[in-house]
Specification:
With 295 residues, this protein is an alpha+beta fold. It is built from 7 helices and 16 strands. Helices cover 26% and strands 27% of the residues. Bound molecules: 4'-deoxy-4'-aminopyridoxal-5'-phosphate. 4'-deoxy-4'-aminopyridoxal-5'-phosphate binds next to α6 and β14.
C-alpha cells in the first residue's frame, strides 16, 4: 500500500452531501464517534466502473446504524448514488470505497441522542488487500488472542468500528510474528473469522464454512456460497472446532477487500491451495467484473 498518509492526498471526499477537497474532510476532536465508537462503516469495491453489490453494502450500512441506535439522514438510493459520484469525481473506475457514518459533537458522554449523524464517503485505488505473491501461495495465519464476542455482549452483526478494536490488536500481534493475519475463534471456541474476512475449508470436494451467528455474514461470503452451489458444489454452514482443521486439505478467506484469498497455514495446521480454491478465486474475480456466465 502507498505510504502517503490518508489525510494528505489529492482528490474529493463526499461529506454530508457535498464534495470537499480531500485534505479538508475533517472532524473535531470532541466527536462522539471517536470517543464512544458510535460509528459504522462499509468496504466496497468498484470493478471497471461498477460497484459490486453496492446496494447490499449500503443497506448493511443503514442496518448497522439502526443496530447502534441511529438513523442515517439519507435514503439508500442517495448513498448508492453518492458512492458512484465519489468514484466519478475522483476519476476512478477500479477503486475501494469506504462509506462511514458517525455521531457528531453536539453531546459528549454515553448518552448521545441529540448528536448530528454525519456520513462521509472516500474512495481510493487499492488493488490488493494481501500482497499478490502471498495470495498465489496462500497466506499464513496464527491464532488470535481475542475471541469474537457473544451476541449478548456486543452488536455482532453491525459493521461497527468498536468491533475492530480486537482485530487491530490481533493483526498487529500476527504481523509482529511474521504472519499475514490472525484467525479468531468465537466465544464458544468455534472457528469464527479472520480480522477482516470470512473463512472456508475444503475436504473431499465439499466446502465447509462457520455459521455466521456471532460475526459478519460477509457479502463476499454469501456471493461465494451462491457461486459454489451454482457450480454444483456442496456448501455446509456449521460450527467448526479448531481441531477439525487437521482434516481439511484447502482453506481460503473471503471479503470485499480480501476477495478470495487462499490460506496456506493457520497456527499448527497447513493447507495447500488446490484446484477448487483457485478456481473460486478466479471465478469470483470474473464474476465481479461481469465476465462469468453462471450468475
Ligand atoms: N469479517 C470481518 C471482520 C470483516 O471486516 C469483513 C470485511 N468487511 C468480512 C468479514 C467480510 O465481509 P464482506 O464480504 O461483506 O466484505
Amino acid at each position: 500500500m502507498s505510504s502517503v498518509p490518508f489525510d494528505d492526498r489529492d482528490g474529493w471526499i463526499w461529506l454530508d452531501g457535498q464534495f470537499v477537497p480531500w485534505r479538508e474532510a475533517k472532524v473535531h476532536v470532541l466527536t462522539h464517534g471517536l470517543h464512544y465508537a458510535s460509528a459504522v462503516f462499509e468496504g466496497e469495491r468498484m470493478y471497471g466502473g461498477e460497484i459490486y453489490e453496492l446496494t447490499a453494502h449500503t443497506k448493511r450500512l443503514f442496518e448497522s446504524a439502526r443496530i447502534l441506535d441511529f438513523e442515517i439522514p439519507y435514503t439508500v438510493a442517495e448513498i448508492d448514488q453518492a458512492c458512484k459520484d465519489t468514484c466519478a469525481k475522483n476519476g476512478l473506475e477500479d477503486a475501494y470505497i469506504r462509506p462511514i457514518a458517525w455521531r457528531g459533537s453536539e453531546m459528549i458522554g454515553v448518552s448521545a441522542q441529540h448528536t448530528r449523524i454525519h456520513v462521509a464517503i472516500a474512495v481510493w485505488d487499492w488493488p490488493s488487500y494481501f500482497k499478490p505473491e502471498e495470495k498465489a501461495k496462500g497466506i499464513r495465519m496464527c491464532w488470535a488472542k481475542y475471541k469474537r464476542p457473544s451476541p449478548e455482549t456486543e452488536p455482532v452483526h453491525a459493521k461497527a468500528t468498536g468491533l475492530y478494536m480486537i482485530c487491530t490488536i490481533s493483526k498487529h500481534a500476527a504481523e509482529k510474528d511474521g504472519y499475514t493475519d490472525a484467525m479468531m475463534l468465537d466465544y464458544r471456541g468455534y472457528i469464527a473469522e479472520s480480522t477482516g474476512s470470512n473463512v472456508f475449508f475444503i475436504k473431499d470436494g465439499v466446502i465447509h464454512t462457520p455459521l455466521p451467528d456471532c460475526f459478519l455474514n460477509g457479502i463476499t461470503r454469501q456471493s461465494v456460497i451462491k457461486l459454489a452451489r451454482a457450480q454444483g458444489f456442496e456448501v455446509v454452514e456449521r460450527h467448526i472446532k479448531p481441531e477439525e482443521l487437521a482434516t481439511f486439505s484447502q482453506c481460503f478467506v473471503t471479503g470485499s477487500a480480501a476477495e478470495v484469498t487462499p490460506v496456506a497455514q493457520i497456527g499448527e495446521y497447513s493447507f495447500t491451495p488446490g484446484a477448487l480454491s483457485l478456481s473460486l478465486m478466479d471465478d469470483y474475480a470474473k464474476m465481479v467484473r461481469r465476465q462469468l456466465a453462471t450468475t
